[in-house]
User: Fold this.
Amino acid sequence: MRRTPVKERRGSGRPRSKVGTSRGKLDSLDVLTGDEALAVLRELLSSRPDLLPDAWRAANALLATVSFTDIGKSVFDALLALDLDDLDAGRRAGGYVEPSEAAWKAIEQAVTPYFDDLERRVKLRHENEAAELCKGIVLGLYRAEHRGFELLEYAEDGPSELAGHAVNMWQRRRRNCKLPRAFIEKFTPEWDWLVR
Assistant:
């Protein structure tokens, strides 16, 4: 039995649109993982080097979108999400893990993505963005310490020590720079040692 092609089928009223087919192909860009999107971008830029300046501008614009208040909220939320289930203490094959050691590890794991991002921006010499990110990390740690979160009782000095680490990381290339005193006075007044 001969099948009628889509364009000739009765009752359809119009031929099948090519836009629907193209749209289906474009949708695959929306579902790419980060590594897959990176591979597509590299392939595109290797075949079209004339697009490199546009790609650099887009990347710099994306990296410039840093708000210390947004970062602070994100760090704060990550720490408040920690609970006793994240405390991997007790007997292990290699010995015993103290609750304080396990709490430190959980807290460090929660803030590691922000430290990685700070390190990346420092290496790229994105000075303003690195400063905003550092302030955001400090703000989130400060708020979490003062609000309290479940693992804080096992690692009381954790937030302040990690804040000092963030500032040291940010200052690595800018040794004479300090966080703005106005920021400390307004947002983290009990951590004025960060600007001494």
